[in-house]
Amino acid sequence: MPQSYIKRILNARIYDLAVETPLDEAPLISTRMKNKVLFKREDLQPVFSFKIRGAYNKLLQLTDEQRAKGVVAASAGNHAQGLALASQHLGVSATIVMPQTTPAIKIDAAKRRGSKVVLMGDTFDEASAHAQKLVVEKGMTYVPPYDDADVIAGQGTVAMELLRQYSGPIDAVFIPVGGGGLCAGMSAYIKYVRPETKVFAVEPVDAACLKAALDANRRVTLPHVGIFADGVAVAQIGKEPYRVIKASIDGVITATADEMCAAIKDVFEDTRSITEPAGALSLAGLKKYVAETGCEGKTFVAISSGANTNFDRLRFISESTEIGEKREAIFAVTIPEKPGSYAKFCKLLGKRSITEFNYRYADNRDAHIFVGLQVSPSNNDREVIANTLASKGYKVCDMTENETAKLHIRHMVGGHAPQAGDEKIYRFEFPERPGALLKFLTKLAGRWNISMFHYRNHGAAFGRVLVGFQVPKKEHKQLETLLKDLGYPYSDETNNEAYQYFLG
Question: What is the pTM of this model?
């Protein structure tokens, strides 16, 4: 039972390396939410993440013989840095196996702390398989990122601190979930000490392995995992975390990438620190809970769990923030292609701020414009705008939730290509590392003409590409076979409204 972790958590002697992080009130977001919001600042740990707690606690439990043979772990980020620092502190040899897609900032951080870094494969699973091979070959001890009782107990010290730091009633605590180590440790402690406090796990909507497990009443493996919040991009919840979590939480909340971006901005405005997407995930869940329940006057805690993000990701995060905050709406609007149409359209919008306006001449009948507008998140502004435009005879398509429109089309609006017959459109994700784009193109080249291509580096582990192929209908099955053989996640976007309006 989860209660068995209480003694482990109380006995975790980690504070000669990990620090007790502050529990800070967030006045700006509290005022907006009409609830008291507190941030547990795990971004202030020596490695800018809570992961140092579990890694160090695990090393403290090893025998002298195990320490002498060294430790190994597979990690693409925060666990690697936590283990590297803990190993350096105890004088233990550490080998970290990372995917080749790991950003240089994380590789350098592990090396700087004295660990040997081995780059293997494109995914965590490939890196993990190599780490297990080293365990067999060299007798090293594997230090799991989450599926281990000592690691879970180390992470549980976050809950021990926050309940000591805030003696008043706490209505709910929101905890990010990837493999589940943090949530397992924290929820076990909170439910034992303050059973009246609700505990909500928060996951990305495209990496919700805990929700899938609870729905199926067993652990399942997701067929595809979203990569935006790389710190929680896990296909299957850990076995031991799942056993603990399912008995000690009150629900699961999922958040989109846009909602995480908005939460990153919220954390910045209250703390002037920039979290990684996974680091702001719990706040995104908190905001969603408040919006859905309409509660006021409550006290909530969000875990600011990490701040290891690449600087070049900030552009994408910033662009997505307004949509995630529901303060920007994106529409495709059809207006007559004749003098005075733009002035008439803009007059109808009144004094609303236009955030984006894209147009390219296509024919002398209709003009399709891509327009972004600032809206209010509280009064169905998107729906009001769409209805107002439609009532004046405009054809309107709301693209605020259209991923292809947001990631690609808004940067491509340039006109239709009637000469590009038999065009099929696909969206891909491929490992982001030097030479990856060339390799991707080489695999696709030769059979069919590429009629459109858009790639944009978002500073993440995987690149996103929108590609058009000119493929005769009788060869569609051959194309599908080739795409499956590529091994990259993809989706057919030929019928996507954004493409049809502006580029088809």
Answer: 0.77
